[in-house]
Amino acid sequence: xxxxxxxxxxxxLALLCTVLLKAYGQIPFKELRRRARTGDKTAASLHKAAAYxxxxxxxxxxxxxxxxxxxxxxxxxxxxxxxGTLGIAALLWLVFGWQMNSRASAFGxxxxxxxxxxxxxxxxxxxxLLSAPARFLSKHLHRQAPYGVYEKEDLIELISRQKKLTHNxxxxxxLSIAASALKFGDKLVGNVLVPRxxxxxxxxxxxxxxxxxxxxxxxxHSRFPVYEGKKDNLVGMLYxxxxxxxxxxGQVKNFMKKELYYxxxxxxxxxxxxxxxxxxHHMFIVVNNFEEMVGIITMEDVLExxxxxxxxxxxxxxxxxxxxxxIGAEKDAxxxxxxxxxxxxxxxxxxxKD
Length: 354
Hints:
Blueprint: H1 2-25, H2 29-37, H3 41-50, H4 54-77, H5 81-101, H6 106-141, H7 152-164, H8 172-184, H9 189-192, E1 194-195, E2 202-203, H10 210-219, E3 223-228, E4 230-239, H11 241-244, E5 262-264, H12 269-279, E6 283-287, E7 293-298, H13 299-307, H14 321-347
Helix pairs in contact: 1-4, 1-5, 1-6, 2-3, 3-6, 4-5, 4-6, 7-8
């Protein structure tokens, strides 16, 4: 009778360890902590013991092995070989089969939460003994992902870690674009606009000529809001390309486009991107809740947030075919010079060795 009770007790303790391993390991600790902070009572109860990570797993697996081995010995020593073999097989299926294939139940989570505090107390005292072997086993035997992806921040962290991998075969530029695209939805128009104080505006009555063109080119932009009278009275948009072929004379209002588009500073960048695509307009006037101009935003400003890097001004030259041809010719000339230097150096006679 005593042997039967002891055997049943060891089997029950082994199953308890299995339930605890499943309950504490079902959710990565980072996500468990996040849920606990949001008021999840189950996560808050599991969090205390789960915080010990590898130490907790090593401790529970050690107990599971000890209790299972004790159960095996009692079954084998007090039964016939056939019954002992069947009993041990059933115990293996119950303990390890359940551990590998089942999911943590509500009862298992409740039980794990119940023993979480005393288990954390034990682990706090066994820390020096468990830490070294736990780190070794975690490093050499762990095959699962070290963390799950539950929120956007987890995916951004995954990309950040991917950049640091020694054998990473994904280009860092591609990873940066992916991370920037994930952060894109969190940004507002007001976060990336060009402030009003640095925006170059043009009066509708300004004369068109070399002086004006020089000022516009120095600003680094190709589109400019046009005002009439007061600077708050915007009446159109001036494009530098419309002045390139224009002869001296005339006023800005003769060359400006009258279409103006507005966007609020508290709107998400995704809204601005949709508006750019639908209107085929590349610059919006940004206004606040009082309909006052606070700056401008361009298509380039939005794309830079997706790409994660500034768009160089030199690309604006691609609108001019002559500029593209000049860039290509310059690169070809540089290549020819490099080849000529190599050929010349190879044809020079070598000095005879002594």
